[in-house]
Amino acid sequence: MGSSKKFITLITILVTFYMFSCVSSTEFEVGGDDGWIVPKSKTYGDMFNHWASENRFKVGDTIRFKYNKDSVLVVSEEEYKLCKATKPQLYSNNDDTVFKLDRPGLFYFISGVSGHCEKGQKMIIKVMETESSTESPPPSPSSNSSSPSNSSSSLPASTHKKSNALRTTVQFSSSGFVVFAIMVVSVFGLV
């Protein structure tokens, strides 16, 4: 094979490798500028579920909770509904908690400070199963609750932002690299 054909083939392989083996992840700051706080009134009681419904989460993304003199717990659906956790999956009270969304499905978060969850400091995050399913918005986590419906005008300004993503990172998967290496070796006849 001529050197120009090898070069074009190598470029094609590099572009294909990049398209199929890149994994991106995003870090979101819970609640935007306000952070993980007790909602100021019942009007804002569902502000975290509203914030979560405005963002799209996928496996590998992280969420950052920033707070003062509080805590965050990852709990079961039942504990979320009761605002009480006897065996949380995670407990953190370090004022800056980062949680990795490591699987598709629902994640339930509550404040561990007595009374805060009951005042609305709780949240459900839905993590999408596949990249293509992020095109259609998930149902609002609070759509079946008995709380009054939230309109954009009744929420704090910071929840109106479409995305509160802090950063996006791109990583190459190890399996993608192996496929890439085999393709390069075969194209250049190194075996």
Automatic annotation (TrEMBL):
Region: Disordered, residue numbers: 129-160
Cellular component GO terms, alphabetical: plasma membrane; side of membrane
Record keywords: Cell membrane, Disulfide bond, Glycoprotein, GPI-anchor, Lipoprotein, Membrane, Signal, Transmembrane, Transmembrane helix
Extent of Low complexity compositional bias: 142-154
Signal peptide: 1-25
Spans through the membrane: 172-190
One GO MF term attached to the UniProt entry: electron transfer activity
Membrane topology (UniProt): Lipid-anchor; GPI-anchor
CDD domains: OsENODL1_like (cd11019)
Compartments (UniProt record): Cell membrane
Pfam short name (any one): Cu_bind_like
Start and end residues of each Phytocyanin domain: 26-129
Protein family membership: Belongs to the early nodulin-like (ENODL) family.
Protein name in UniProt: Phytocyanin domain-containing protein
Organism: Arabis alpina
Source organism phylogeny: Eukaryota, Viridiplantae, Streptophyta, Embryophyta, Tracheophyta
